[in-house]
Design goal:
Layout: H1 7-22, H2 28-40, H3 42-60, H4 76-81, E1 96-98, E2 102-105, E3 112-115, E4 121-124, E5 129-134, E6 139-151, E7 159-163, E8 166-170, E9 174-180, E10 183-190, E11 193-195, E12 202-204, E13 209-213, E14 219-221, H5 225-228, E15 235-242, H6 243-251, E16 257-260, H7 263-267, E17 269-275, H8 279-289, E18 292-296, E19 300-305
Parallel strand pairs: 1-3, 6-7, 16-19
Antiparallel strand pairs: 2-5, 3-4, 4-6, 5-6, 6-9, 7-8, 8-11, 9-10, 10-13, 11-12, 13-14, 15-17, 18-19
Helix pairs in contact: 1-3, 2-3, 3-8
């Protein structure tokens, strides 16, 4: 297999490998593939070392360093040697809980895993609220705000999802659903879903996403699924997004806000995979990559251009 890449893609590949090697389901096959990628070109090792430095900056800066163990540095030498255990502290601790029909919510910076009484598994992201009701003829889940990952159990009753004025029906599918006011996105991670779209019903097949905003045409695309689901392990993946967009996403997970002080800093672009829950660490990691300065205050972390 040819792992040689264009220079502009190497940094993204290095960030992808770093996230993959930190994942809970990392395998020996992943490590073998990483070694092959690393040996294919000298620039790969340099890019991976740089990504590791940024990862350490994110994980190593905490409001209280005693609150959690420091993450173990994942170097290319350690992976090449084999037998490295990964310790990743994302600040979000979750575990499966048995749930009965009703309303479930999470606060800012909290994630929660539930098993509904029909066997469906749902993971709630930060600042999320859902309502679930099982009836004789159907199962109904309403997403009132936030984001969920939904693993629908087999049942003779259809599983109906409501988000604002939109509905979808699915059967034994795994879906990612997000609602921000009147903007709703639905992605079929596995299986499919039938979505009531603006013009006509849409059969959303595996790997596809539909974005729906009141008063605007629906948009269909195929996102990077690993990036899309990174939030489930306490991480966010940014691919050539503006600092303003990245800061807004990070702010969903912390009470202490990131404030981008000027238009120049807001328009700068960032790529990479970052842990959530510590805005100062994220901002200082950006300062390693971009010409910005960071000012930490009690209620906010300010990001400004150096020019």
């Amino acid at each position: 297999m040819n792992f040689r890449s264009k220079p502009e893609n190497v940094n993204r590949q290095a960030a992808d490998w770093l996230a993959r090697l930190h994942a809970d389901n990392r395998s020996t096959q992943d490590e073998a593939a990483f070694r092959a990628w690393l040996n294919a070109d000298p620039s790969h090792a340099l890019a991976f070392d740089h990504s590791s430095t940024v990862w350490d900056a994110v994980g190593g800066l905490r409001d209280d360093p005693r609150s959690a163990p420091a993450p173990q540095r994942l170097s290319r030498r350690a992976v090449m040697a084999g037998g490295v255990g990964i310790i990743l502290s994302a600040g979000l601790t979750v575990g499966w809980q048995q749930a009965q029909a009703g309303v479930y919510r999470t606060g800012v910076g909290e994630q929660r895993r539930l098993m509904l009484d029909d066997g469906t598994r749902v993971m709630l992201d930060t600042n999320t609220q859902i309502r679930f009701r099982a009836r004789e003829t159907m199962r109904l889940l309403s997403l009132e705000t936030g984001r969920i990952n939904l693993d629908i159990a087999r049942d003779s009753r259809p599983f109906v999802i409501e988000a604002g004025d939109r509905r979808a029906v699915a059967d034994m599918a795994r879906l990612d659903l997000r609602r921000d006011d009147d903007h709703v996105t639905l992605t079929a991670i596995q299986g499919s879903a039938r979505v009531e779209a603006m013009q006509a019903p849409v059969l959303l097949s595996q790997g596809h996403r539909i974005a729906m905003t009141a008063g605007h045409p629906d948009q269909l695309d195929r996102p990077e699924l690993e990036d899309l689901t990174a939030w489930q392990s306490g991480r966010l993946a940014f691919r050539d997004q503006t600092v303003a967009e990245a800061a807004a996403e990070m702010n969903r997970y912390a009470e202490r806000a990131l404030v981008v002080s000027d238009a120049k800093a807001a328009a700068m672009r960032v790529s990479g995979v970052y842990s959530v829950g510590n805005p100062e660490a994220f901002a200082r990691s950006l300062a390693v990559l971009l010409p910005i300065r960071v000012t930490a205050q009690a209620d906010a972390v300010r990001i400004a251009s150096m020019y």
